[in-house]
Every structure is written in structure tokens, then in C-alpha cells.
Design a protein that fits this description.
246 residues, alpha/beta, TIM Barrel, 11 helices, 13 strands
């Protein structure tokens, strides 16, 4: 059964969404992150994807206090991402209650450091984030800085190292409500059938989630479809209940 995970992106303490990772295309929402997380938990979600956009910009973890508060006021397992570039960052994330972290930039530019984290903390705790535009991996908070590495080559390297969990977003679809990159996920799972893929970007309906499940995607992370009222919290709650009853 596919795992469905809501996301909260933080910038200067506010809940926001970007379009295709572009900070110039920013929507600010009138939601308190703690209250929002509690609503997600009440609706039946067990995990939360927390994005530290301040951390991504500054290349160090920033919103650790909100992470800490979320773990204090909810029982959600929190996957944290953004600004994890140093040993102190990953330690801070786990000390503040993160259940797992997703790392992108260090996995490209500091492979030995990323792999040391992977070995030290474990495969389910340190997850590779490999987000791409037109098949090329982007880093530096998606600000169109190409690593000049093909996504498939990047994954092949880490799969050979034992990595099995990966979050991959087709950046061109992020925040667009244009539908997920179904073909990309099909191709990745054909080439790497043992990968447990976290899909993100473009989710516009519950049917999209069902299609990703048919493809074999392990988990899906959603954001804008909820924030823009395309899929209501009640819709998700009913969806989760129906999955449990199957």
C-alpha cells in the first residue's frame, strides 16, 4: 500500500509553497505549522515531510525549533529536509526529533560525507533526494544549478552502494498541479526495481495517487493540491480510511 505524506514548507516561520522550486513564485498561506500538523495527524496521517527553505538557502539547518515543537505536540514521524550539509546539521535534525532526513546537495557534491551518514544512521534514516529537471539532477535548492549528472547515473551509483530509499521529483511539475511524472517513475522502477521511491510534484487528485501506487511507487508527498483546496483534508481522511479497510 502506498504511503501518503503531507508536506509543510517553511520560510521565515511561515507556511509557503513554491512553483518549480522558484522562490520568486512564492505563495504564503495563513496556516500555523503546528496547528496544521495537528490537523494532519487528526486526519489519520502518520508522517509529515518538513521542508526548511531557509536552511536550503543558507546551506545550514535553520527551522530546527519548529521541528522540535512538531515532535513535541504531535506523534507524527517527521521527515526533514533543507540545509543538511554538515555533520552538525544532521545531528541537530535527529536530536530535535526527525525520524528521517532527505539529503540532495551533499549526495552530489560530497559523496563520501553522504555515504558516511547513510552508513552511520541507516538506510531508513538517511534518504537520498534526487530531484531532476529534464533528466538532469538539480542541487542548491533547485535554483536551476545543474550538477551535470543524469538522474539515472546518479541513482545507479547509489544503488550500487546499497541505497534503497530515494525521493525524486520532476521539478518542472512541482507546484503546477499538472500531474505527476508517471513515465519517469515507470522508467526508474523498470531500471531499479528494488528502489523504494518517494514521488512528489504535480499531484492534483486522489486518482494520481492511485496511479502511482499501480506503478509501484513506495510513497507520495503532496502539498499544493491540499493548500489550494483541490483535495480537501476530509477527502484525504476518507481515502486513508478506505485504504485501511481494504
Amino acid at each position: 500500500m502506498i504511503e501518503v505524506i503531507p508536506s509543510i514548507a517553511l520560510l521565515e516561520g511561515k507556511v509557503v509553497r513554491t512553483r518549480q522550486g522558484d522562490m520568486n513564485q512564492l505563495t504564503i498561506y495563513d496556516n500555523d505549522p503546528i496547528d496544521l500538523a495537528m490537523q494532519f495527524e487528526a486526519a489519520g496521517f502518520s508522517k509529515l515531510h518538513l521542508i526548511d527553505l531557509d536552511g536550503a538557502k543558507k546551506r545550514k539547518i535553520v527551522n530546527y525549533q519548529i521541528l522540535q515543537m512538531l515532535t513535541r505536540y504531535t506523534k507524527l514521524q517527521i521527515d526533514f529536509t533543507g540545509g543538511i550539509t554538515r555533520d552538525t546539521d544532521i545531528r541537530t535534525a535527529f536530536e530535535c526529533g526527525a525520524s528521517s532526513v532527505m539529503v540532495a546537495t551533499a549526495a552530489v557534491h560530497e559523496r563520501e560525507r553522504f555515504y558516511s551518514w547513510f552508513v552511520s544512521y541507516g538506510a531508513g534514516k538517511v534518504i537520498l533526494a534526487a530531484d531532476a529537471l529534464d533528466g538532469l539532477v538539480l542541487t542548491k535548492d533547485w535554483q536551476r544549478e545543474s550538477a551535470d549528472i543524469k538522474l539515472v547515473d546518479h541513482l545507479e551509483y547509489y544503488v550500487s552502494k546499497g541505497v534503497r530509499y530515494v525521493k525524486s521529483t520532476e521539478i518542472g511539475r512541482d507546484g503546477t498541479l499538472s500531474g505527476p511524472a508517471f513515465d519517469m517513475y515507470r522508467q526508474l522502477l523498470e531500471q531499479f526495481p528494488d528502489l523504494k521511491i518517494y514521488a512528489g510534484g504535480g499531484i492534483r487528485s486522489l486518482e494520481d495517487i492511485e496511479e502511482l501506487e499501480k506503478i509501484g511507487v513506495y510513497a507520495v508527498i503532496f502539498g499544493k493540491s491540499f493548500y489550494e483546496g483541490i483535495i480537501s483534508l476530509k477527502d484525504f481522511e476518507n481515502f486513508l480510511l478506505s485504504r485501511k479497510e481494504q
